[in-house]
Design brief:
The protein is built from 2 helices and no strands. The protein has about 55 residues and is mainly α.
Length: about 55
């Protein structure tokens, strides 16, 4: 049970880092990389939410 909770926390941390990375990509003018980072962060957040909801 605690393993799933830890897993969702790591996914949320990865999503946060991806959002920060996307922000830096936008500042650098790399819009395609920013879109990929935002997409990955959104998927990580959705997966973490689903894992928390299952428990």
């Amino acid at each position: 049970m605690s393993e799933g909770l830890d897993y969702s926390k790591w996914l949320l941390l990865a999503a946060l880092l991806m959002f920060v990375g996307a922000t830096f990509q936008i500042v650098d003018g790399r819009w395609i990389y920013a879109a990929v980072c935002f997409g990955a962060a959104t998927s990580f957040m959705a997966l973490a939410h689903r894992r928390r909801k299952q428990e």
